[in-house]
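Record format v2
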Amino acid sequence: MTISRSIALAMFVSLILLANKNSTAQNTNANKQKANPSLASYEKYIDEHMDAHQKEFIELVSIPSISSIPSYKPDAARTATWIVNKLKAIGITTAQLIPTEGNPVVYGSWDKAPGKPTVIIYGHYDVQPVTESEWDTPPFSPVLKDGKIFGRGASDDKGGIMTTIWAMETMLHNDGKLPVNVKFMFEGNEEVGSPYFKNFLEKNKDLLKADFALNADDGQYDENTPAITVSLRGSVTLEFLVKTANTDAHSGEFGGKTPNSALILAQIISSFYDKAGNVAVEGFYDKVIPISAQQKEMIKKIPYDPATDMKILGTTAEVGDPAYSPLERVWYRPTLEIVGMQSGYTAPEGHSNIIPGNAMARITCRLVNNQDGKEIIDLVVKHINKNCPAGAKVTYKYSNGYARPMVLPADTKEYRYISEVLSEIYGKQPFQYASGGSVGAMLSVKEVLGLYAYPLGFELSDEKWHAANEFFRVSSMRKGQLIYCLYLHYLADEESKLKK
Amino acid sequence: MTISRSIALAMFVSLILLANKNSTAQNTNANKQKANPSLASYEKYIDEHMDAHQKEFIELVSIPSISSIPSYKPDAARTATWIVNKLKAIGITTAQLIPTEGNPVVYGSWDKAPGKPTVIIYGHYDVQPVTESEWDTPPFSPVLKDGKIFGRGASDDKGGIMTTIWAMETMLHNDGKLPVNVKFMFEGNEEVGSPYFKNFLEKNKDLLKADFALNADDGQYDENTPAITVSLRGSVTLEFLVKTANTDAHSGEFGGKTPNSALILAQIISSFYDKAGNVAVEGFYDKVIPISAQQKEMIKKIPYDPATDMKILGTTAEVGDPAYSPLERVWYRPTLEIVGMQSGYTAPEGHSNIIPGNAMARITCRLVNNQDGKEIIDLVVKHINKNCPAGAKVTYKYSNGYARPMVLPADTKEYRYISEVLSEIYGKQPFQYASGGSVGAMLSVKEVLGLYAYPLGFELSDEKWHAANEFFRVSSMRKGQLIYCLYLHYLADEESKLKK
């Protein structure tokens, strides 16, 4: 299915023609030649440049911009510079790095549409770390296979960033201009909870002034079904180390009298949960608001099929408190997950008969409503200390950032613009959706810039974000670019109507 | 303190003089010149060759003969060949490798003492794996520091092997002969539970025929206090993998409905123990015999100080069922220890927000009395399967060897010979001791060769066996050699008295 054949473009025809008076592109499809010359020229440009774009995408994904490991800082800087150069190359008049306490933010601005609104687009170029051995192909040597580009960060969120940039490239090339003013802010510390982003926004408030904000780090329901995310969970992380001895001990010589750090860690981890699968940390749910009738209604409309969902991961059961449905649990309930755990001798081969002297775990909590990351971590730490037996000592490694939960109103024109464009392109109304994930920067955007950053991204839930073999679909590259082009035209048109 | 000054040699004088008629060594200590010329010459030889022996020991310890990792097989073979060459160099008439299903056994024999008894000495040249990052100096680049040689296997058991070989070298050099016939069997799979050793014994029964057996893989109470180990625990190992998904999952997108393998592993591990710290696996203690009055009496004689003991590891509490004393628990009660545990993203830096799709643990059980390794593993597997919830699947990696518990009688002449030599050298009676550790081959030696292999080794409990920064003391090299020399003379003398 190509988009040119599937979409109903009636409502866009006028604005597209209006916006592209100077278009000289030839359309080889005779049937459409009169109706939408510039859409066809966008498509033509996109298709003709698909190979080149894939090549440059592979170049970008090959840079390991891992934000949670300090030694990758130069790679993050290299990635940011790569994006600045790309912005300059396509004709974004201002493109530069803005330093932060962490990795720099890529800032771009095209402001040659006087009297038109300004849209600021958020994305992030940093990526999650990798466990190289679990990948079928090396995470930073991206490969294109079966219409998918495999590599760390391909979907989350380098694909999101590049989709918006390529859309601008397409319009600037075809029309010599954009339908509205556009700004970019691509940060480099999203995957560690955007600890420096709010400060960046405050320091650069004037520079970042805009009328609309978009979040390119989001997705659709599936390849053929659109969705608009109206709430995100927050997230906060913690690492802790249980230490029982200064050294590992011979399990024969000392086994029977010596505390085992691995056992104590396992016992602490077990104590995090009750039998129903809820978090047993005291006070954890105190600020969680009951799920509303409206939220339940929203979930009812989603054709959620546990079997299809479980197929993505190859799981054989769903877990969690049966008092809530799976989507209720993922969208509106907080979690505490063990994301990493290590103790003793764990090399792939060999067996070391030792009582480990220390054991480490990393956790991530997803938060909802008014839950505060710092408060939650305090509760978890209190719980661990309370459950740490004699003979063990726990030390903590706190992260300096956390993402706060976020809710976007669905009764705004901003929501409507996105909804209408998605409806046109996909041929069906988008689901009103929630995400169990987190984009910490979004609440800061609201607080500092006064804007709700509505999601417009093309990640899909099977694309293994954060896991091994992450990939982004070539079809999403194509569809995403076209949607960004049409959305900006539609926004310009609707806003000028409002002015009249 | 040098041994020459501290030991009372009265009872050995005659036999030493007898056994070393041809000794021409000069003794620089005028006081002792008449009393013990050949002991002095042994000491002289030992001291003069200390540097050379240390150098060759460093060479031996630098070969990574890890038996639990198949890729180290060539290193194990290299180690075995190195020892064969050393045996040949000192004049052991027969020295060769005997192949097994695993690493070869080093076999040696010196049989030029017709009419004298034959002593067979057991040791092992294989070593535990390492976690290199935890070592202060590289585990296979041994260094000498403060009278200690640091390196994997230095104490367990390359020090044990070399002590016996150097003792033979000293006697052969000084006397041109040994006081008894001596055989060696140094195996290369002790650290994986000696799976092939019984078969080796059976196949080579005639070759290995002897009157006395010694186990060089053992130690003393401390640097100044002797001990004879009369019981060893058995040991058996198991690795298991909890799998909940084919891949890791984004902790936001899937958190709340997706089973977490790390949590399930932690819950299974917690279920292994009851609140008193006993193993909660059904049937685990069924074959454990109550601790006898005699065993309790034995323990009473040991000046066990928990504080001193805890200092070795830097622990701050002792654990275990308070119904038993610490030594009772280590000597006569079985254990189940988590020796390794891994799940999710655990690289030293970085944080990956994933729900791990699999989680691995390795356990080691120490066994007592009639506990059978295979039976115990069956019980543990049954327990795990019973405690594995829906949504998870457990797979197992069994080891093909396990060490059986072993008891040595203390009312034998074999025990007495060792006890008397140790008493003389250390100036005090050895403790009758038990070990929480395991030397699986010893029961096979009894069953196949009909001999109790009494311990005569010089490892000390703070030498970090199996852990990082393992070391062996230079003082033990010296003392151990001298004791082996005197022991063989004493044995020859006592046995010839019995014949009269």
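The first strand of chain A starts at residue 94 and ends at 98.
The CA atoms of residues 290 and 332 of chain A lie 9 Å apart.
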